[in-house]
Amino acid sequence: MNRPSDSPVHYTIRGVPPEVDRALRQKAARQKLSLNRVVLDELTRASIGNTAKADFSDLVGKWQPDPGFDEVIASQRQIDLDKWK
Fold first, then answer.
1. 56 half-sphere exposure, CB direction, 13 A CA radius
2. Which of 6, 22, 68, 81 fits a 20 to 30 Å CA distance from 35?
3. pTM over 0.90
4. Which residues 6+ apart lie within 8 Å of 39 measured at CB?
5. Residue 13 DSSP symbol
6. How is residue 27 annotated by DSSP?
7. Residue boundaries of the structural domains of the chain
8. For residues 73 and 66, is the Cβ–Cβ distance under 8 A?
């Protein structure tokens, strides 16, 4: 079967042990990802190692408002009209 090398392939996997299914579903729920995404990530990691894709899921929901930071950023976003003439 001829297929371009960058074309995704679809798998059907049978016989997944219940404990593996449970672990994958729990991981998907914890990371708020689809089961498909988690399985793809696990297959990738197991077969070729970590990909270059960054995973910032451990940072999601951890932002703390900082009025001082907002003030500094706002001052940097001011346009100096004299420099744009």
1. 5
2. 6
3. no
4. 24
5. -
6. H
7. 1-51
8. no
